[in-house]
Automatic annotation (TrEMBL):
Residue intervals of the Rhodanese domain: 22-110
InterPro entries per record: GlpE_sulfurtransferase (IPR050229), Rhodanese-like_dom (IPR001763), Rhodanese-like_dom_sf (IPR036873)
Protein name (Swiss-Prot/TrEMBL): Rhodanese-like domain-containing protein
Amino acid sequence: MSNELDGIIQVDTDELKGMVNDSASPILIDVREIDEYEESHIPGVPLIPMQTIPAHLEKLDKSKSYVFICRSGARSQNVALYLKNNGFNDVRNYYGGMLSWDGDRQDGLEWMVENTQELYR
């Protein structure tokens, strides 16, 4: 069940599992470093490393919903707060991060977003 931290909805593992293959769900974005993502990530979830988020800010659609994922939930919380402070209304954090994820995993660099328009396939 979702709760809230600093005005950001916290998504738990069961909720995230329901979102992974649902095209109507929020856009899921992994914000870890490339090497962390390559080691293990949720299949189909794109990577936008945290430090590159400001460069993507103007390209992200403020009318869309987003859930951010990192290793423990701290970096993704900071990204959600940053976007919220920049006019994004529907941003969420995966509480517990990949340390809590017990679903399917994939290794390798599956999908690193260089052009955020790639998110809208």
